Amino acid sequence: xxxxxxxxxxxxxxxxxxxxxxxxxxxxxxxxxxxxxxxxxxxxxxxxxxxxxxxxxxxxxxxxxxxxxxxxxxxxxxxxxxxxxxxxxxxx
Length: 92
Ligand SMILES: NC(=O)c1ccc[n+]([C@@H]2O[C@H](COP(=O)([O-])OP(=O)(O)OC[C@H]3O[C@@H](n4cnc5c(N)ncnc54)[C@H](O)[C@@H]3O)[C@@H](O)[C@H]2O)c1
Prior knowledge:
Strand order of the largest sheet: 3-2-1-4-5
Low-confidence stretches: none
CATH topology: Rossmann fold
Mean pLDDT: 92
CATH class: Alpha Beta
Bound molecules: nicotinamide-adenine-dinucleotide
Distance between the termini: 19 Å
Number of helices: 4
Shape: globular
Order of helices and strands: EHEHEHEHE
CATH architecture: 3-Layer(aba) Sandwich
Number of domains: 1
CATH superfamily: NAD(P)-binding Rossmann-like Domain
Helix content: 40-55%
């Protein structure tokens, strides 16, 4: 499974580390609205970055979306991911 992670704050960084511990699951992209955190994700993980969770979802690069953005974005990002065909959304 290819995972795209929306939000590289506290929970996003924790989940990014957990993804790497499971066979058959690869973190392929991270999104954050903060440029500094996109740069950090790129340095930490060597993955593609997007300037919003919406952009990551719309790019269609992930099978599974982890929603680690602020609470008010959980529903809209999850619905967007499901409508785009994601297998499952995860709330942090
Ligand atoms: N911190 C905890 O211990 C904890 C525990 C359980 C659940 N949660 C939940 O996890 C969620 C995130 O909490 P956090 O502590 O990681 O917050 P955080 O502020 O550290 O991280 C959220 C990140 O989302 C980014 N973001 C905002 N809008 C975005 C968008 N449109 N697309 C992509 N990224 C976007 C922000 O720039 C930020 O980096 C919250 O709903 C919180 O309630 C947090």
